[in-house]
Amino acid sequence: MLDSVDLKNISTDKTILVFLMNLLMLVSPGILWIFYFSPEFFKELDIVKLLVLSSSFSFPVVILFGFLRALKYQKLNDILYLFTTGNAYSCEITFIALSLSYFLNLALKTTILFVIIFSIFTVINYYIEFFFKDLKEKLYTLRRS
Q: Could you give the C-alpha distances from 10 to 5, 13, 32, 95, 126, in angstroms and in order?
């Protein structure tokens, strides 16, 4: 997972690869959403409009989960970590939602609702982990003394 990798130690050769990976992870969920739910609209768009529109679908989720992950591991000043982890969670949520939508023949509104509910539960989980971590450590130190 991304926790064990120190992203700052990536060599200059691989920096372009990491940038392209992040760009691909930013636009791919949106492209899949557009293609799956509106193939006609997908065919009408030129490449620049498609990339801008698809990244606008993913960007709020990327920022939310990247921020939560960076907050949890105290890496708020590391932009590369924020975007890489946010992109990973954004892709995960989107691909799970689209897979369920495809296999269960769900409508667009139901799929978006699923993504929102999954995101809310993930935010609650991070909130509980982050704020109750200190309580857990205090209880552990009290028990040892």
A: 9, 8, 29, 27, 27
Q: Which of 84, 37, 79 is nearest to 57 (CA)?
A: 37
pLDDT tens figures, 84-114: 777 777 777 888 888 888 888 888 888 888 8
Biggest alpha carbon–alpha carbon distance for the chain: 68
CA distance 15 to 34: 29
Structure tokens, 9: 């130690």
The secondary structure element, H or E, covering residue 48 is: helix 47-72
- d(C-alpha 36, C-alpha 139), whole Å: 50
User: For the chain, how many structural domains are there in total?
Assistant: 1
Q: Find the domain containing 57 and state its range.
A: 2-144
> What is the tens place of the pLDDT at every residue in 22-38?
788 888 888 888 888 88
